[in-house]
Design brief:
By secondary structure, the protein is mainly α. The protein has one domain. Helices cover about 80% and strands about 0% of the residues. It has ten helices and no strands. The chain is rod-shaped and about 95 Å long. The relative contact order is 0.14.
Length: about 290
């Protein structure tokens, strides 16, 4: 009877250790910014900047927004109703880039990832699992959490006499995959916002460009034989301001997205590298 319940007991023991570690890891995670609240606040700030910074009376001749702009901020204000949205997009890229930099930096841990991976592999070669777990506690971050969970499962499976070698390796691999799955969403959170801004920033700017060109051609046609040069120049200026803001915002978003994607890929590669070393060490020693 005891032999019948023993596999179940070992399985429950392993799962309890996994659950305990997962709860511990969750307290270490940085949740990041709430995207909906952040976007709402940033749009409000963009509107305020458009009306009270770019639209300040001192930026225009005659101290009124109806006059000609005498500063670059006044020129941007003349870009029209699309400008506040483009300014908001630029602020979103800046805010979420800072947030992702902080979160991904924390996920990497407190020390060099390459040195951490090399030290873990050396400890695994010596089968010093407790020292490896202590090193994970020192490293912290997502990679430290994943490796620690794999090492705890390693210890549990090493003393399990009910499973054969192949079953233990499958269980160890599953533990590492589950731990990685728990960590990855936090790393990739808000990355879709950067990707979306990179895509729609140029489109929104194109809308502003079209509106400006419509005003320019309307001024050209409305003047008959002698078009209103001032109205024509205002329309062209509005089109170019929107084009410049949209291209700049999209370019910044693309650079930020690719940069953080490469950082996440590096973390994923390091996790996979250590995970493979753990499995190979287990196969060699047990």
């Amino acid at each position: 009877m005891w032999n019948f319940y023993r596999p179940l007991k070992n399985l429950i023991y392993i799962q309890m250790e996994k659950q305990q570690l997962t709860q511990t890891n969750s307290t270490r995670k940085v949740k990041g910014l709430n995207p909906f609240i952040t976007i709402f606040i940033v749009i409000a700030i963009g509107e305020l900047i458009y009306h009270f910074v770019f639209g300040a009376p001192s930026n225009f001749i005659g101290d009124t927004t109806e006059g000609k702009p005498k500063t670059f901020m006044g020129i941007i204000h003349k870009g029209g109703v699309i400008v506040p949205f483009l300014v908001s997009f630029l602020l979103m890229v800046i805010v979420f880039s800072i947030e992702r930099s902080f979160v991904i930096g924390k996920a990497g841990g407190t020390g060099s990832l390459t040195r951490f991976v090399n030290e873990i592999r050396k400890l695994l070669d010596k089968n010093e699992i407790n020292d490896a777990i202590a090193l994970c506690d020192k490293q912290k971050g997502s990679i430290g959490n994943v490796v620690k969970e794999g090492l705890i499962s390693y210890k549990s499976l090493a003393h399990d006499t009910t499973l054969d070698k192949e079953q233990k390796l499958v269980s160890l691999n599953k533990t590492l995959e589950e731990a990685t799955t728990l960590e990855m969403p936090m790393l990739e959170k808000n990355m879709t916002i950067l990707a979306t801004i990179a895509s729609i920033g140029t489109l929104i700017a194109l809308m502003g460009t079209v509106i400006g060109m419509i005003k320019a051609f309307f001024a050209l046609g409305d003047g008959g034989g002698s078009p209103d040069a001032a109205a024509l120049s205002v329309g062209i200026s509005e089109a170019l301001v929107n084009t410049a803001l949209g291209i700049g915002t999209s370019a910044f978003a693309i650079i930020a997205y690719n940069f953080f994607t490469s950082k996440i890929d590096t973390l994923t590669f390091k996790i996979d590298e250590v995970g493979l070393s753990i499995q190979q060490s287990f196969a060699a020693h047990h």
